[in-house]
Amino acid sequence: MNTKSDSSPQSRARTTVRSLREKKQAGEKIVCLTAYDASFARILDQAAVDVVLVGDSLGMVVQGHETTLPVTVEEMLYHSQLVGRGMSQSLMIVDMPFLSYTSIELALENAGLFMKEAGAQMVKLEGGADQAETVSALVQQGIPVCAHLGLQPQKVHKLGGYRVQGREERAAEIMLEEARILEEAGADLMVLECVPERLAQIITKALSIPVIGIGAGAACDGQILVLYDILGLSMGKVPRFSHDFLGQAGSIEGAVRAYVEAVRSGRFPAKEHVFS
Ligand code: KIV
Question: CB-based contacts of 31: which residues, under 8 Å, 6+ apart?
Fold first, then answer.
């Protein structure tokens, strides 16, 4: 039995793939945040954040790179191990970094490392139909997968910048089709990043797996933001879809709890955080 957080003020059942699906079915919003070390992970865990993502965004917000591309498997493993030590009840997802899943064999090897050596309960990878076989191979080995559509930061150079995706009719149709293919391949969760609110709503309705939005509007089954953005620590401009919760809350714990409450109650995201 894991007793790491028995003294936590917020003792609750551990989040699982199954409980996330139940939340979608019950219409309860799923709250997700990124974390990169044990101290922040503990704060998120105690604030009843459902899902903690060790995002490759650490390349930007922790390491100071301009993109997520330089992040390595070793660095993701190190940060995942730190985060894992801070958590007992939230579900931990680890991002597969750039070029760490270019073949099924490589994806299995690297995802296996995150599961075995950091205690990840799910891995996340960016991509559409081209990743369906990889998703299927991971799932067959018992590795839950979170897919990631819309803006895929690992493709930033190909996309020509960090831009809203799926605005044109054909692009929207393709995204919906790819979401269905990834669900069919066995993905258990889907992140939609920087997608018009209406398209995100259609995809969320079309899938039976939970859809988590970031810059994708309030109709998604849940929300995720980069932890440093909600604490006003963004390097450069705060993304339009994010919000600094620290200013009003006055403490890090307070800011995380304010975010949790805002997502659960449907107050976040508001109109000004959404793309059309
Ligand atoms: O790397 C990351 O933090 C992410 C989230 C922004 C979804 O992928």
Answer: 48, 49, 50, 51, 222, 223, 259, 260, 263, 264
